[in-house]
Design goal:
With 362 residues, this protein is α+β, with helices and mostly antiparallel strands. The protein is 30% helix and 23% strand.
Amino acid sequence: MKGISLLLLLFLGSFLLGTTIDDALLESIEALVAETAESKSIPGLSLSVRVGDVITVFDYGYTNLEHQIPVTKDSIFEIGSISKTITAVGILQLRERGLIDLDDTIEPFFPDFPRADEITVRDLLQHSSGIHELTDIEEFSNNMRRDWSPQELIEITSEFELDFAPGTSAQYSNINFILLGLIIEELTGIPYDEYIADNILGPLGMGNSMLGSRKTLVYGRASGYRLSEGVLENAEYESLVSPFASGAMISTSEDLVKLTRVFTPDLLLSKQSIDEMISQTVLRNGELWPNDKSMTYGLGLDMLYFFDRFVPGKTGGISGFNSYFLYLPDRDLAVAVTANLDDSLREIVLLAMEVADLLRSN
């Protein structure tokens, strides 16, 4: 089951035209999508590209194998840590409104958290806080079916010493963005999901994106799968409440390329905020992290090094799902992929890179 749908992006009430992709290139991308899905036994995969103001969606396979429900442009996947990008945008918006500074410490919000007087908002955004990774804590990792509250997760994390002094290194930590989600709530006085819906998702036209829930009926929701000794089976159940602002969002590949419009200056963020967001992680001593060309965080991003640069983008993974988007600012070109298979991140990242290379060379 595969298909292509071409959408002219209706953005902020204006019908904008752009350069379309020719038939030969469409066929090449469709072939890459099919090859990736089949080689990894991915049940369902959706890939969207945005070139200027034109979005093209490539769909392959099934959102649900047992009921043979095909993937469409409106199929909704769990996107895991791409949620962090949305949270980062929210914090930067509040900085621009004068409600917070990135170099403020988190002590006013979390006075009892270890070394809160040393950890800054910037440290949370770029994973330089030193806070221990949540999934490495057995009390949490052995109980991922449970709906943990943000406050409970902060409590168990605060029992661990920091892995390093804030601002001296960088290490991925999901609790960073759970803390940021709570900061958004405290500064705005409204729930996190309401803030992002009104200030980010709505303005960007991301109508199929929301904070996820296992209880809420979501039409078009994809089922998650995993491979066990070469056989597809249903993925392990994990809470969608616990990840909160760090990883609980659900979305479509089409909406994820719409998300990259956030990198357009003065749409949702100033050029200064965008430049900070897509810059390499800088430690307190002024050194860049890392000191090689591999991957850096930016603010709410995972920027991989290819095409001779750190490319703005973000990976996402949660039980049964992987996702990725990338953005090339000089071409105003974005690619996003969603897949309903555990441990398929490497394949979909490579797919997105190949598609981006085709488009930028065309």
